[in-house]
Amino acid sequence: MADRFLVPTAHGPTLSMRRTSPKVPSPHARPVVLVPGYGMSSYVFGFHPSGPSLEASLASRGLEVWSVDLRGQGQSSWGPRRDVSLGDLAVDDLGAAIDHVLAESRCEDRSAVDLVGCSLGAALAFSHVSLVKDAKVNKIVSMGGLVTWRRVHPIVRAAFVSPWLAGKVRIGGTRVMARLVLPALARLAPTLLSIYINPRSTDLSQVSELVKTVEDPVPSLNREIAEWVNRRELVVRGVNVSRNLRSLSHPVMCVVGRHDGVVPEETSRAIYDEVGSARRELLLVGTDEWPIGHADLFVAHHAEERIFSPVASFLLERDEA
Question: What is the model's pTM?
Answer without folding.
Answer: 0.96
